[in-house]
Design goal:
This protein has 125 residues and is of the alpha+beta class. 17% of the residues lie in helices and 42% in strands. Strands 1, 2, 3, 4, 5 and 6 form a 6-stranded mixed beta sheet that branches.
């Protein structure tokens, strides 16, 4: 393999790597630009939670998550800053009664040892 071929191959490989990083979705990892929420239903009456607030890209978003028991992780959605959680007695889309609303402050960053999960309980200490 000649020197020109090696340079061309190296350049193409580097360009592909840079493109992969630049074109990838804007997800936050290891708590660097928002957190995923882990919800603890300590009361035991919540079957879904609508989370509304700002995502890791600064966009205003809202999503409903069905809770699967006393400890539910809301995977794939990163939240930052002021975030609202509306708890419902029925599953998402059922039109059920809202039980309570919490407004929380989700940090954009936290130590790597804490990962990217922000824990929320549905009771006030």
């Amino acid at each position: 393999m000649g020197i020109r071929t090696r340079i061309a191959t190296g350049t193409a490989t580097a360009a592909a790597g840079i493109a992969a990083v630049l074109l990838s979705p804007g997800a936050a990892f290891a708590g660097t630009n928002g957190q995923q929420i882990e919800f603890f239903d300590n009361i035991g009456d919540t079957n879904s939670v609508v989370v509304s607030g700002t995502n890791q890209n600064g966009q205003s978003v809202s999503h409903c998550f069905d809770t699967t028991g006393p400890d539910t992780r809301f995977y794939g959605w990163w939240w930052a800053d002021t975030t609202t959680l509306d708890e419902y007695e029925g599953p998402c889309g059922s039109g059920s009664t809202r039980l309570r609303t919490q407004i929380i402050a989700v940090p954009r960053t936290q130590p790597d040892s804490d990962g990217d999960w922000w824990q929320v309980n549905n009771y006030i200490d």
